[in-house]
Amino acid sequence: MIEFSRKIFSVPEQYQASGFEYPGVKALFYEGMPYNGRRTRIFAWYGVPDNVKGKVPAMMLVHGGGGTAFPDWVRLWNSRGYAALAMDTCGGVPAWFNSVYCRNPWPRHDHSGPLGWGFDKSSFSPELPPEEQWPYHAVSSVVLGHSLLRSFPEVDPARIGITGISWGGYLTCMAAGVDKRFAFAAPVYGCGFLGGASVGLANEYRTVKDNKRFERWLSMWDPSHYLPNAKMPVLWVNGTNDFAFPMDSMQDSYRLTKKRFLAVRVRMPHAHGGAGENPEEILLMADHVCKGGESPSSFKSQGMKQGAAWAKYKSPRPVKNAELNFTRALGHWTDRTWNTVPAVMNDGLVSATLPKGTTVYYFNIFDECGRVASSEHVCLGG
Predict the structure, then answer these.
(1) I need a surface site. Which of 116, 157, 207, 237 has the fewest CB within 10 A?
(2) What tens digit of pLDDT does each residue of 206-252 get?
(3) Number of domains within the chain
């Protein structure tokens, strides 16, 4: 675990970002942490809701691998009544060639910090001082962006949440443990315990040759070291077969946070765009924490009895249907086939007979809008 500079909690200097335009949002640079003895700047898009009156809640938006700061993501949250800031965490700037979600390389600017992503060959350098490595700068860029966002007169600093996708979810986990000022966090896909056997990252470093380097990286930058410090509510959004962040690593991660909510869909796709940016459960959490809306549904306890599984849930709104998701497979989490059968609902309790050969199961409940709440998954072996 690494101690971050206290400077990230101060308002960074802001600079113009000429030549970047998108309807309804403002492009800017803000001061980053020093890199290789020189000053750095971080690119960001910032937007506010139309016709702002008084102080508004806000969101920090953290892109994933292959991404950059996305202005349409900012506008999505503006349309919901939130100010929003999306920053580039890898020293790049957006330039639209084929689409806003085209792959690397994003153009770099004169004040760039280190390249990302965490296990990319250009950024995996655990032998360097921590202050010269990508995770240090990426987390710092998020927290500095939060410090800047809190300083804007139209933003209520007590009502700022954070969400991030994939590597951005990883950074969200890190930032939630480093920066206690966030009102809530919603990592999508990303989690800790990245040394797990099913984690689809860093495979080139899981060798006898590079294992010590990999372990050193994990000792500094795995979110498991930081998540116990995350005291705010955390919504964990993921799918059963995620190639990068599997269910076992996610479970070990969310169990480090006390105020947790789970939204785990069967075979949820892994992507920027609607898949990662727009799960309705994130808006529900944001409106609950930042606007005093209804709480997301959640499970409070679960167990088994005589071949049947049960779980108790709490929901402030009617639950439309419930399901038992199960697999009979073993091995790599990404490769497991999942099946779904209806579950019985009875006054805050869901239950179902476990199909023969079940190795892992969990429950999902859905409200009238299709928003999901998940129980923890249970491993039965085989």
Answers:
(1) 207
(2) 887 788 999 999 999 999 999 999 999 999 999 999 999 999 999 99
(3) 2
